[in-house]
Each structure stands twice: as C-alpha cells, then as structure tokens.
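Supplementary Methods, section 5.1.

A reviewer requested that the exact input to the structure prediction be made available. We therefore reproduce it here, unchanged from the version used in the analyses.
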Amino acid sequence: FRGGVAERLGVDYERVRARRPDIVYGSMNTFGHIGPYASRPGHEQIGQAVSGMQVRYGSAKPATAPFAANDYGTGLMACYAVALALLHRRRTGEGQFVDSALAYTATMLQSGLLQRYPGKRWDEPHGQEATGSGPLDRLYQAADGWLFLAARAGDLARCAELADLAGRSGAELERSLEERMKSRTVAAWVDALQRAGIGAHRVVPCLVELMTDPLVVARGLALTRDHEGFGPITTTAPGVKLSRTPVTAGRPAPKPGSDAASVLAEVGLVGDMERLVRERIIAVDGVKAGC
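The structure derived from this sequence is encoded token-by-token as follows.
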C-alpha cells in the first residue's frame, strides 16, 4: 500500500503492533513510507522512471524495460528483510517494521553504475543500440546469428583463430573482431573460444526456445502445469538449488478470488462474500492469462 492506505483500512503497523508488539510487519510499495512521494501510487514502470532506468534502457528517448525487474526484486528484498527481522526477533523478542519499495530496488540493481567520485566518467553502455562495454565484452554478429564475447586483455592470444588480433585495442580491435566474427558460424566461434578458455555464448533468439531447451527443463528451471481456467501454462520454476533441502514448486497460481471463501471462513466473514465481491474488494473473474 502507498502511504496512508493501510491507516485508512485500519491495518497499519502501529495498530497491528498495539495488538501484537513483537510483530514483524512487511510493507511494499513504489516509493517507501518516508518523504514527499510516499502517498503517490505507482507500479513497475514508475519505479523505472524515478530511478533513471528508462533513460539507461532507452538513452536520449527513454524506453520502458519489458521485464519487471523491480517488481520481482522488491518482493525478494522484502523477503530477505523479513527473514532478517525474524532472526532479530528470535534473538531479542523485538518486532519491527520492514519497508521495501520499487525505488529502493531500482537503485540497488543499478548500484554498480550509481557511483560518484572525482574523475568519474558517466559513460556506461546504455540505449537500445548498446552492444557491450568494449571490444572484449560485447555482442558480435556471426555468419548465422549473434554471440556474446566475454574476454580479458591477453585472452585472444590463446585462440588460434584470433591470435593475430591480440596486439590491437580500442576501436581498431572492435572493427577487426566485427569483421572476423562474420566469417564463421556462432557454434564454430563458441567452440573455438571455449577451447581457448574464453567466455562466449550464443544469444538465444526466442523465449520459446529457451523455455523448451532440454537442459533448462532437466534442471527444473521451466515447468508446465495445468492452471485452473487456463489449461497448461509453462512458467519459470524456482531458480535456487539447495542440496539438502531442495526447493519444490508450490501449487499453480490460483485464479484471483478462488480462495476467498475459505479465507473469509477462517476469520468468520464468509457471510460477507457477496458484498465484498459487489463492492469490488474481492475479484473472482475477469482476469486474463498473462495479466
């Protein structure tokens, strides 16, 4: 909730803490709960706008990044903070308020770029035409597709196919690599570079290809399950792997409102179901897949 909403609903931290002093209370919104923007509404794209992400992604003409990095990141950071607060409560018995926001996450994700010091050059790659940070760390077009090269100074000397370029640098090296890469296929270059101990990988051109890749499926990074009302849907799966306590995917996301009756029954409000739906406090239909 943005600032003031939880207070209006009567579920703000101070009122909850009055009933349970050791509560760990987590709150997520766009701008946090302190400052002149606290009461403003917002979502992912607002978080990108206020943090400069849209300029970095689009350059002179700002552009919206198509992935909700701040939405996901804010949830993860909130979980991390709540875990720390629970650890503190276990040690001291004290609860606390946990504040997580899209603007906080957006700056954290750009922490490698948001630095200021004497001599700082604001020249990091940005915009839709950016290919990388230099000739040894960028995208290249091969004969049949694209690959990303991640090399260090001196690495090219170990690759027979590129050893003659090892003495070049800067724009000269970049132009030479652009021309040389076009002479062979992506697979040939990735193989040659990997054999030389140089980082390189084919750019996967299609998300469907990624999600159906046998390695991705075998590692449990994508899974297909039936979702109520929508049929089989392929989604990403838990991205962390624990050797002793493996993470397993929970049930498919239910339709909005499908648990409303059981949740209201737990708190003695099942009789208010129709009113809450009528007043649009609870939604039970009208949600499309992907929204």
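The chain has four domains: 5-109, 132-202, 206-251, 254-291. These observations are discussed further in the main text.
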